[in-house]
Design goal:
Layout (H helix, E strand, L loop, with lengths): L10 H4 L31 E2 L14 E7 L8 E3 L2 E8 L2 E8 L5 E9 L14 E3 L2 E5 L4 E6 L5 E6 H5 L13 E3 L2 E8 L2 E7 L5 E5 L11 E5 L2 E7 L3 E5 L6 E6 L12 E3 L2 E6 L4 E10 L2 E11 L13 E3 L2 E7 L7 E7 L5 E5 L5 E6 L2 E6 L3 E6 L7 E6 L9 E3 L2 E5 L3 E6 L4
Parallel strand pairs: 1-27
Antiparallel strand pairs: 2-33, 3-4, 4-5, 5-6, 7-8, 8-9, 9-10, 11-12, 12-13, 13-14, 15-16, 16-17, 17-18, 19-20, 20-21, 21-22, 23-24, 24-25, 25-26, 27-28, 28-29, 29-30, 31-32, 32-33
Length: 425
């Protein structure tokens, strides 16, 4: 039986749009205090900011501003004084730019007609700032570049139509990866599962893979065994892709019901971790180099009903020797635990049972989590056990983790965007 749409991951949850910072040098002008893309500057959900709260304030975190947003599941990206997200309003999918300090509307640009889906309407992917432009990927597969200054559309192309693809069951969620002079997304098209376009024109440069559905995961750029490569978690596999040619360097099968590979791959040392919900599980892969090719070796794997970590749409956080993550029980069911594991072995360290569906980032020794109830929860990031500093309800239903920049957390739901002061007083 197909799981209830109520619990299936949507594109947005899984893959807000990529952008500026990855594990290698990319085209970028972001500062260390920016959050210019999905999962932040280094695309791992970790901020280097310090001086954040270490005790829960009376009444919760101070609200700086609250602004009108719109329908959709896109996360918030920030660079300097500008915050961007994708929303749906007035029958269109729009890129919304607001002043990050005040919440005032800067511009709102329609990109394509509204997208409707039983799992949730509107765009899913998070915008990506690169230079003086912002890149977006809509729920129906339109990839566009806009000027940060005024929202002018510099180019716009429907990647799926161009390559003979079709919209994924729950919408296109991949956050574009911008690296060098390319912008890269999952298309799941007959002419290419992964597509790279020229950042100046949007024209195709290469395609990679054939006959495989797009996952809902966003690609990342890693240096593995001495070679920089794109790592893409697709509908039924994860693979390393050569940046210049699009050739697959290695591939590992990873079949999940409904192609719901949604969390982004993460780099753990010289290893690649992938995890999926739908009662699937997690696998740590060692990617080795041998002569002119790569080898793939499974270091540890925890699969099926007894798995210790099943990331439904949330990307795990790797801090020191440990992984902090959401573990969804069953086939997109309502029970989700928060867990801490040894990264090297996958051995469980602690589990907060029935924490609930949510998402999170990390900074200053803490986890900043959101729940689908609209709560912000702050937790110490320690292997010593679950220690909650506090929680409060600040928005309505959301699947996106907060964005963090200059000591402020930015959250959104299907109607509003909220800025909270997370600095230590």
């Amino acid at each position: 039986m197909r799981p209830s749409l109520r619990y299936l991951p949507t594109a947005i949850l899984a893959c807000p749009l990529l952008v500026v910072a990855t594990s290698i040098s990319t085209v970028q002008t972001a500062s260390a205090d920016d959050w210019p893309q999905f999962l932040g500057l280094n695309r791992n959900g970790i901020s280097q900011e310090t001086g954040l709260i270490d005790a829960w304030p009376t009444g919760g975190l101070k609200e700086v501003w609250r602004a009108k947003g719109g329908v959709g599941m896109s996360g918030v990206a920030l660079r300097g004084d500008i915050a961007c997200t994708l929303i749906q309003s007035e029958g269109q999918q729009r890129v919304l730019a607001i002043n990050a300090k005040t919440g005032a509307n800067v511009w709102s640009t329609p990109v394509v007609a509204a997208y409707e889906n039983g799992q949730g309407d509107g765009p899913r992917a998070t915008p990506a700032f690169v230079g003086e432009s912002v890149f977006v990927f809509t729920g129906n597969g339109t990839l566009a570049r806009l000027k940060v200054s005024d929202g002018t559309v510099e180019w716009s192309h429907n990647v799926l139509k161009r390559h003979g693809g079709k919209i994924a069951d729950y919408g296109m969620a991949c956050s574009p990866l911008v690296v060098s002079d390319l912008v890269i997304v999952q298309a799941g098209a007959s002419a290419g599962t992964v597509v790279a376009c020229d950042i100046k024109t949007g024209e195709p440069r290469w395609t990679s893979g054939r006959g495989e559905a797009a996952g809902y995961s966003s690609p990342a750029m890693f240096t593995v065994s001495g070679q920089s490569q794109i790592v893409a978690f697709k509908g039924s596999s994860v693979s390393g892709i050569d940046l210049k040619s699009g050739n697959e360097l290695w591939k590992y099968p990873y079949r999940t019901d409904y192609h719901c590979n949604t969390a982004s791959p993460i780099l753990v040392g010289n290893n690649v971790l992938v995890s999926a919900g739908e009662n699937h599980g997690s696998t740590m892969l060692k990617i080795g180099a041998k002569n002119d090719s790569f080898t793939v070796e499974k270091i540890w794997s925890s699969i099926g009903g007894g798995s210790v970590m099943r990331n439904e749409w949330q990307t795990a956080i790797h801090l020191g020797d440990y992984l902090y993550a959401f573990d969804n029980v069953g086939s997109a069911g309502p029970v989700t635990h928060l867990v801490c594991l040894e990264a090297a072995s996958g051995k469980p360290v602690w589990r907060k049972t029935r924490f609930g569906k949510g998402n999170m980032i990390a900074a200053d020794g803490k986890l900043f989590a959101t729940t689908m109830k609209g709560e912000l929860v702050v937790i110490k990031a320690t292997p010593d056990g679950y220690e909650e500093l506090g929680r409060s309800k600040v928005i309505e239903t959301t699947r996106q983790a907060p964005a963090l920049a200059n000591g402020r957390l930015y959250l959104r739901d299907g109607a509003e965007i909220v800025c909270l002061d997370a600095r230590k007083k």
